[in-house]
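Lecture notes, unit on binding sites. The following record was shown on slide 14. It pairs a sequence with flavin-adenine dinucleotide.
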Amino acid sequence: VTRVETAEADVLVIGGGAAGVWAALKAQEEGARVTMIVKGVLGKSGCSIFASHLPWYDETTEEKKKARLTYAIRYYNHYLTDQHYVIRLGQFVRERFFGELERLGVYWRRDDAGNIVVSKSLVPVCVAHKQGSSGLVIMERLRQEVLRRGIPVMEETCATGLLVEDGTCRGAVAVRLRDGAAVVVTSKAVVLATGHADYLSLRSTGTREQSADGISMAMRAGCELVNMEICWFHATDVSYPRAWMRLHVYPNPLVGTEETSRMYNSAGEVFFEQKRDAPGSSAPYVQQMRRLALQVERGLARWDGGYYSGYTHIDPEVLRAYQHQIGVWNKLGLDVTRDLLECAITWHMRQGGIHLDTRTMMAVGVEGLYVAGGLGGHYLGGLGPATYDGWVAGTMAAEYARRAKKAGATQIGEGELAKREIMRVTGLLQKVGTERPYWPALVKREIRRVMWEEMGFVKSETSIRRASERLGRIRQEMVPRMGLRYLGDRWNFEWVEALDVLSMLDACEATVCGALERKESRGPFYRSDFPYVDNENWLVKLIQDWREGRPSFRKEYYETPFLKPEREREGYFDADY
Ligand SMILES: Cc1cc2nc3c(=O)[nH]c(=O)nc-3n(C[C@H](O)[C@H](O)[C@H](O)COP(=O)(O)OP(=O)(O)OC[C@H]3O[C@@H](n4cnc5c(N)ncnc54)[C@H](O)[C@@H]3O)c2cc1C
């Protein structure tokens, strides 16, 4: 490192997706001096930009209220969520979310009478302003708002470690890609919002900069993790070209029509359609995966292709009016009204994550550290939930900072902790010269290969143990021989990739350990050696604590005050959640 820079803030926000932006905006409104660190570009990195549509929280009748709760608790989180949080979230989205964004200039698609256009489904969705473009539109407005308010943002700057002393978080260390400077930001409180769609498998909806850094930082800082094994998959992302693997043929309710997309096997038979097969779920990915597994078993689809999806049965005018995604067909020289797209599965968002208190968003066990959005282990995610989390975390962090200031909290500054983190990070930059070095990009690919081959949709003790052994070999044999070709400090992406390797290994190991421990199947988590949902024993937060360098586990049962599963135990392929 050529130099170390220091900065100071009341509240440091790490991450520039919906959760991070809202945390920063709310903390500033509460009077805190805020600084943001974003590994990619603010409002243009992470998965917030991919949001296609937003659930429209219509709870005007008891029936609609029940449908929304059932969707959120049963289909979206498989009962692994705090139901009181779900109620608070619903109220926030209904009363604040749409209005606030509209005030910032987001255009919710409206009809000629001025009403917001929603899908005609059990749990309706709305769009800004087409299905597939909502995240882009919203995040651009939020980016502009942060810049307009003059909040300092360090873009293309990668946070690497949290400064936690005596169980209290007081800042973070980061590497600025532009010039390789190590930046030590000391703060009274930190909001960690690095997202949940990480690029940990060969096919993933996670983008380049998403390497589970937040999970790794939290593990090293002494936070607990929950339900790390519950990872979602997308079933209808395009198989080709590879760089487009996170583009989606939406299986969700479509605006402007009562029809929904269809999935076809290689024999041309329809095997899934949301309106027919999962009418209560606006995000029917788990059901898609179950149906796809049966086609793979019949030899009529593969996980990496050989099955199709499309909108050929839908009125072309409706597609043109409401579907941003038809651009995919156009760019491939195909016709959305006639052609289907070949699909493949991708690893998607993590339902689990960091253990937190859903009232304050503070991480369990680490004072002054708030967690917002997909990174939390409390709820699957979504633009509305990420916004709510950021809103609460930013407000609470500002309040915490105010109290810490009053109490005269000591700064960690460039103390021992920061020095140790800088040494760890720069150690990777210097590590060259072994006889046959492994380039970081190659090690990353190997980690992804292990996760794709051993931790796909169908898992068993044998494959999970194989994943564990293979990851262990990568850590013991490849990591010590990792070397960089370029040692310069300007835009040294290879250096960041070496850091990514360490984060990815931490997160993958926690995922594998959780998968071995959870002895049932649920939601997207399918173990062929435990092919049933077991609500008697596993309707729990599976909590991991890594403070001793290896996981110790405990279980906490979820309360079910508003919605309970009907059966204590049912076959995985019979269940619909
Ligand atoms: C393909 C896809 C489709 C989706 N569709 C929908 C939808 O239709 N509707 C819906 O409601 N939701 C949808 N979601 C989910 C929704 O987008 C997410 O749940 C939500 O946006 C998460 O926001 P976030 O701020 O927590 O994380 P992200 O948006 O992922 O932001 C993470 C941020 O952290 C930064 N970061 C990462 N590591 C570091 C580091 N080390 N240092 C500093 N910064 C770091 C990244 O650069 C990024 O800015 C979709 C997600 C995907 C992937």
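Take-home: Residues 522 and 533 are 5 Å apart (CA to CA).
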